[in-house]
Amino acid sequence: MTFENRHVVITGGTGALGTAVTEALIGNGAICHIPAFDSAESARFTLAGKERVHIVPGIDLTDEQAVTEFYEGLPALWGSIHIAGGFDMSPLAETSKDAFLKQINMNALTCFLCIREAVKKMRITGGGGRIVNVAARPGLEPREGAGMAAYTASKAAVAALTVCLGEEVAAEGIWINAVAPSILDTPANRAAMTKADFASWPKVEEVAATILHLASPENGAGRGAVVPVYGKV
């Protein structure tokens, strides 16, 4: 796959999956633009300072104006990969309205705003492009989301946006797809679930490889898909 001199946005690019995606992209010639909000995570980002990695600090992806201005300031855009989001696990009776809306905003709203602005940017050149979202297994299989209704609903919205908007812009050569991971094998997830079978979890590098294919020029036909990346479970 070649992304030589193609500009790609990666939201959540300083996290575990985002780092794997960014590393794979720059290894294939891409120029990466990462809107960063979490200063502590950005400080730990191992790819900071790389020639083809541009971090833009202080971008709140739930702020419509901030997202619009970020995309408007970019060069001609080939790809936009949307990893940023949040997680909440709480039973129904303990989930407040604010907690529910926070998940919708962090996962679904950020995805929607970034898709919208990426499409606008891609339309300027008329050369098409690739958008990849990150849903989640509970978003495809809601029974898996018992005890985390807000998160499940927000990721189901990401999956629905992928399919409906993917159809809307397909004629312009803009492919929109998503991946739906199960529990990713990250240090944070291992620390939270110490007795789990880590070997069965999908690795961030494996999920990144799927994202890279969907975002690549070599993906000439795949669109409107939400691809399960569940590993062995």
Describe this structure in words.
This protein has a seven-stranded parallel beta sheet, with helices on both faces. The chain is globular, with a radius of gyration of 17 Å. It has helices at residues 16-27, 39-44, 64-72, 97-125, 137-140, 149-169, 187-192, 204-215; strands spanning 7-11, 31-36, 53-57, 77-82, 129-134, 174-181, 226-229. The longest helix has 29 residues, at 97-125. The model has no long low-confidence stretch (mean pLDDT 95). Strand 4, helix 4 (97-125) and strand 5 (129-134) form a beta-alpha-beta unit. It is built from eight helices and seven strands; from the N terminus they run βαβαβαβαβααβααβ. By secondary structure, it is α/β, with parallel strands linked by helices. Helix content is 42%, strand content 17%. It has one domain (7-229): Rossmann fold (3-Layer(aba) Sandwich), CATH 3.40.50.720.
